[in-house]
Write a structure and sequence with these properties.
Number of helices: 15
CATH class of the largest domain: Alpha Beta
Number of strands: 20
Helix content: 25-40%
Low-confidence stretches: none
CATH topology of the largest domain: UDP-N-acetylmuramoyl-L-alanine:D-glutamate ligase
Strand content: 15-25%
Strand order of the largest sheet: 7-8-6-9-10-11-12
Shape: globular
Length: 454
Amino acid sequence: MSEFSGARVLVIGLGRAGVGMSKALKAAGAELTVVDQKSADASTMLDALDEVSGLDIAIITSWAGDVDWNETDLIAASPGVPRTHPALREAVGREVPVLSEVEVAYRMAKAPMLAVTGTNGKSTICALTYFILNECGKRARLCGNVAGTGLPEETVTAAAASAAPDEVLVTEVSSFHLDWVSRFRPVAATITQIVPDHLDRYDSFDEYAAAKRRIYANLRDDDVAIVNLLRPETLPPDGMGGVRLTLGERDADAVIPGEMVIFPESHVELRVSELWTGGHHNLENAAVAVLLASTQGVSPISAVEAVRRFTGLQNRMERLGEKRGVRFVNNSMCTNPRAVAASLESAPGPVLLLAGGVCKVDDLSPFEQCAKRTRQVFLYGKDAERIRSAVESAGCRPVMSDTLEEAFECAASAAQSGDTVLLSPGCSSFDQFENFIERGRRFRELVKEWPDGG
């Protein structure tokens, strides 16, 4: 019997995660109340309400934050609900358990979980690991915080509730998930990198980094941590249980001496020119994915062969083709300034950069370095003026626009044959779009609509 059977659960949030938790918890026998602060007629709520209708659960929209504590055994909080929410604070004071989406999933899962967190690169590593495992005859599912990849994706609770023990759950885990974990224990885990992000939600970078490192908290001796020695901020704490597989410049399970990664025990090499797109960071991503796959019995030789067949993901340096000799690349998933620099590393030719939206960090200095590596910068959106000073300090005078559409028109008109028009916003999308997926979709439409000739 499920530990949730008969439990009176309050699910906060009726987005993708909340819908997934509601369905899985109801199937597990929980008595549910689902709340969301948005009104029932909000456009984003209509589909969600359709999905949970008929489940015999109580639904409260336009929720003001009140909780009937006499009827609540635990709270399942969607990732978008901040730790500082009054209901969660009161729950802690009342010693009512608060579980994140990934904690709920872990308690349901019969299949092992491979977990990936970090500021940048999570989706790429998860998707590549999923691809390797399936290419090599394993039954894997791609789930968690991952979205907009173009591959089959599931909520982590949907995958956990239905996966058989011989399947593998390749799970993207955000810091928001890790805010509320207690027993969550993947069989293998990794942190890609930790750079400033989501400081609109955390009081400090240290608090954000501590949330990321919580992914290692419950590892035991037979679990595995994939440790990137090139990024010391990701190193597990001393005394952590589990086996460590490492990547670094030398003396590691995956060695990256330059423009290749070498797996010494298998005597196999993978060159950056063999990847779906360039960039040293993608050598690191590939190395981590191969090591994660190795924990499930896939040899590095087979895994590297699979990596060579991988063609990339939507919204992550997604190549949209050429028109008039101009390349168009969609990196809408890029939502912080440090990630812009990595995307420029792998973008071909002189770059015309489209950036802007809603900044989530105070330090915009990375935009200064980015501006030095582009032919022109086109800024748009709510915080374009904030970014302008960083770009201008690099000696670049950006072209300013209100919307992505206007910025695209300016960039495409200025582009010459051999140039790359790169959407790599370095910001969240919430001033103009529902999410980065919608932003990437709109960029694809603009490229498609832009005439070939003339």
